[in-house]
Amino acid sequence: MKTDLKSEGMEQTMERKDSISVIKGIGEKTQKLFAKLDIFTVEDLIEHYPRGYDEYEEIIPVGQLVSGTIATIEVSIVANPQLKKVRGLTIFTCRGRDYSGDVMLTWFNMPFLKNTIRIGTRLIVRGAVTRKNQSLVMEQPKLLSKEEYVNCLHTLQPVYSLTKGLSNHMVTKAIQTAVKELDLTGDYLPSEIRKKYKLVDYKSAIKRIHFPTDKHTMLEARKRIVFDEFFLFSLAMMQIKKTKNNKKSRYQMDLSEDCDQLIENLPYDLTNAQKKVWQEIKADLTGGMIANRLIQGDVGSGKTIIAALALLMTVKNGYQGAIMVPTEVLAKQHYESLTKELSVFGVHCILLVGSMTAKEKREAYKKIQTHEADIIVGTHALIQEKVVYDKLALVVTDEQHRFGVKQRETFLSKGENPHVLVMSATPIPRTLAIILYGDLDLSVIDELPATRLPIKNCVVNESYRPNAYRFIEKEIKKGRQAYVICPMVEESETMEAENVIDYTEKLKQNLPPFIVVEYLHGKMKAKEKNEIMERFVRGEIHVLVSTTVVEVGVNVPNATIMMIENAERFGLAQLHQLRGRVGRGEYQSYCILFSNAEKKETKERLDILNHSNDGFYIASEDLKLRGPGDLFGIRQSGMLEFKMADVFNDAEILKDASEAAKEIAKKDVRLMLKKYVALKEKLHLYAEDIYL
To answer: The Helicase ATP-binding domain covers which part of the protein (predicted)?
Structure first.
């Protein structure tokens, strides 16, 4: 039923679940663009929070510009503008000057500027400052009229994640309409909780997060939204824990001598941390209760061999085991390594991934159902309806998999409550891990194998680039390979795909022709991504350029260089995980971090990576340095994919929300649901989407 409440003189005619097509100006074409951002309903739209804000400051002299910052300047054009075409890209450049110095201004695919910008034209521009060949440059700055500049001064303008064809202005306008016409009164968060934790009401939070009047109101709104995300997450976790914990297991196991033999056969000794975690898992599997354990270990700490031991023990007790990973390439790698390690014990592993032919899948299903297969390695294909297991007693999954409750329950029902091991390479302080993984027991592998050579790191600026290219060439001549993480370009509203292709071309021009350079980006089809990754694993590609985090956990022992552009835009925990893609073999590995940021704080932050290879230490140091004000722009981890909350930056709010959830959960359930009907409804909706 539509409400007819009045708000700001407008009739509120929108419902949360309405399609965004009810918003004026959103036709079929625009609707399809929003769908690319997973925005289908009005609620999706108002929960598409800004990924940052543009804070318009006073105009500064060119002489005070600092690379790595965003600034507003007023200049006169002092030379004839140039318009040229490079590989289908039109580039318009001109030189601006004020009393204190010169700056180069560059615009891409905006050839019409030649009609308005000439020698003598006076411009107010605002954009990111970089330094190229010792000159200051602003690329794709925003042109402002005097009036626009005055109106924007000292305000926070929302900046949204976009897709090609959808501008920031279009998203802002749609959200403005939704916030005006949607009835946002009513709050599912009990008033006593809002009072205790000093939280603004829901309506104010939504309005202020999108259109804050100042930094203080924005931070208040953000605190409320982050609290909500953690609070609902904690409540949902508690519900799961109640239904799952302390249940007797159908799959109680006995110890197996083959596991001791596998440890003997290894060409290296297990670390003390690995031995301790293996003892904990053995106690779980033989203890008679359903095991739910998180194994947390830094990149390269040796979690996979622990999983192999647990799977071997499962098989030797007459049961099946499954290991589910995010990508096909990784599934194939796990399949090959498990087959190699376990076939001597008579264990039969099979692979099940989406790209297999219908015939191959049918054969795999048959082997699984008849228990001809002992261990099944695969991707999401493992939980499809057609897969019928025979005594599935252990499921190993990967934290990065982020599969929802429904999918997880599908898996659990297939095995009639199997034991679960979750692997995580995200270094989270223990106090936070206990809250986030409240339904799991926690094991930590906190030392690296002695044979692993520490990665050599360096943070460099643009002047080092020729040396970096020569170094890559030298390593490739030795038979090694390299990853390059390309700069992110979301701000310029060009597609990441175009950017990575251009960047790859530039790299090819700077490296000798015998070096094979290929790229990966988020817009590629899964099949293409798999082909590229497989060629890289086989050594057919020498340099792999990628915009996003390189395929999780893929093992390429031959890769020895990780070069990261615009390193200051990543959280240190994320940089540390990227760095963990190299150094997996016997060769010395290197991580080259490019950063043109001249801010002292940025340099200090990146310097932490130079002095430590310990993920837990790096994450906590980063937290100390950055402080609560620096909340946007750098995601510490994609873990759990909260829309706004970040487990590192918002650790204190996480603790408060967890405490509040415990208070609610303690109360009599019937009374609670009567009293908090709105919360019950919100929790029900949330639990459908929650990622574990």
So the answer is: 284-445
Residues 6+ away with beta carbon under 8 Å from 662: 234, 238
For residue 9 the two structure tokens come to 């003189």
What is the enclosing helix (H) or strand (E) of 233?
Answer: helix 215-244
- Structure-block tokens of residue 256: 């197996």
CB atoms within 10 A of CB 31: 15
CATH H-level, domain 57-153: superfamily? Nucleic acid-binding proteins (2.40.50.140)
CATH of 289-445, one of 3.40.640.10, 3.30.565.10, 3.40.50.300, 3.40.50.620: 3.40.50.300
Q: For the segment 510-529, what is each residue's pLDDT rounded down to a tens digit?
A: 999 999 999 887 667 778 88
Average pLDDT over residues 556-573: 85
Alpha carbon distances (Å) from 592 to 301, 351, 567: 22, 36, 9
User: What 3 state SS string does 340-394 have?
Assistant: HHHHHHCCCEEEECCCCCHHHHHHHHHHHHCCCCCEEEECHHHHCCCCCCCCEEE
**Gap between the terminal Cα atoms of the chain:** 34
CATH number of 1-53+155-185: 1.10.150
Q: Kindly state the tokens that stand for 660.
A: 């509040």
Give percent of the chain above pLDDT 90. Answer: 39
* pLDDT value at residue 548: 60
Neighbour count for residue 354 (Cβ, 10 Å):
15
Beta strands 89-98; 101-108: pairing state: antiparallel
The encoded tokens of residue 615 equal 């993920």
Closest C-alpha among 449, 481, 452 to residue 556: 481
CB neighbour burial string for 502-519, b if at least 16 within 10 angstroms, e if fewer: bbbeebbeebeeebbbbb
In degrees rounded to 5, what are phi and psi of residue 573? -60, -35
> What local confidence, expressed as pLDDT, does residue 483 receive?
93
C-alpha 447/C-alpha 90 separation (Å) is 52
Which tokens hold the place of 649?
A: 């930056």
The DSSP secondary-structure symbol of 529 reads H
Residue 133 has pLDDT above 80, yes or no: no
Q: How far apart are CA 64 and CA 344, in angstroms?
A: 68
> Which of 198, 238, 244 shows the shortest CA–CA distance to 662?
238
* pLDDT greater at residue 237 or residue 392: 392
Under 8 Å between Cβ of 424 and 351 = no
Q: Are 331 and 353 in contact (CB under 8 A)?
A: yes
Coil/strand/helix, residue 482 = strand
Could you check whether 289-445 and 456-612 share the same CATH topology? yes
Domain 456-612: give its CATH architecture: 3-Layer(aba) Sandwich (3.40)
List the domain boundaries for the chain: 1-53+155-185, 57-153, 289-445, 456-612
pLDDT band at 2 (very low <50, low <70, confident <90, very high): very low
Reading the block at residue 466, the tokens are 């020729």
Crossing angle between the packed helical segments 526-537 and 328-342, to the nearest 10 degrees: 40
pLDDT of residue 14: 82
The residue-averaged pLDDT of 624-628 equals 54
Contacts of 81 (CB under 8 A, 6+ apart): 92, 93, 94, 113, 114, 117, 118
User: Angle, nearest 10°, between helix axes 677-689 and 215-244?
Assistant: 80
Q: Give the pair of three-digit tokens for residue 259.
A: 């596991």
Alpha helices in 153-214 (DSSP H): 168-181, 191-196, 202-210
